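= Tokenised fold =
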Amino acid sequence: MGWSGISKCRLFFPLVLILLAPAMSGINMSLASENNMVVAHRGASGYLPEHTLAAKALAHGMGADYIEQDVVLSKDGIPVVLHDIYLGTVTDVEERFPDRKRENGRYYAIDFTLAEIKTLRVHERTKRGSDEVVFPNRFPLGKSSYRVPTLAEEIELIQGLNRTTGRNVGIFPEIKDPEFHQENGFDLSKIVIDLTASYGYDTKEQLMILQSFDWAETQRIRNDLGYKGQLVQLLAENGWGISPNTDFDMLKTKEGLIEVAKIADGIGPWINQLVTGIDSEGKPQLSNLAADAKSAGLTIIPYTARADALPKWADSFDMLLNTLFVTVGVDGIFTDFPDKAVANLKSSR
């Protein structure tokens, strides 16, 4: 797989992040040929506010193989990179536009033009309705200045860094809430596919992997929109309320995974769907999900490895990664700490 560019994005981060990239670059791994892919989850979000260009530049410099983009649309149909369809909890939208919330109290990105979104300051994620940060030891709340990037700006940043560093880092966009966007008059998947194709990401040989939780949308992306690139079906739990029309319990069965393999190249499960705990001797207890997925010919790239929020069964970040890569045999990992994952993989070679 492979990727490309850089134009008029304003980069709100120190030049030192760019300068670090060549010195910190690692060996690039291909999804098809290596079983140790590091995907920077929302960028190097363990160190800088998520989905900012600063976090993406740092992730590139830390040696990530792919960098993730959650994509939603502005009111004028421009793809922007945000984890949610809402602007709250990661921006100061409540202060700048206090009267623009909907009846449910939420501020939707799709209700704001790109020009309006660009006036917002991005900060470390907080809990809804308070200034309490989700991860207390991460980047200080309200410090420095960050903005919401467009998908185009982020692609141009990554392609520009690929050129200046000689590395070949891929993109890993997620189609966020496609049904919501359709209800608001936009075909998010088509917009993203067309935009990424304009930057050269239009075949399975290019370093782009597209992902979605919505199983109906995953099928539509492949069958109706004719997307030819790498495609991953994300897996959640039915009780989470993510993509309510998707039966994740069904998709996780052996029969369900066989159906997924007819459309997608891989799955993106939650870590605890693969490892359910440890036994009395401290050995990891595995579900059948990984074995069934491999049997169906699917790659496995679980989410999310966090050094500051370990699952109950892991006593260290290295144990978490070793269990996933060695015991489970995953093909890659989403992580907020790409440097730690790269170091772990290098030390285990």
About this structure: The longest strand covers residues 66-73. Residues 15-86+149-348 form a domain with the TIM Barrel fold (CATH 3.20.20.190). Residues 1-33 have pLDDT under 50 and may be disordered.
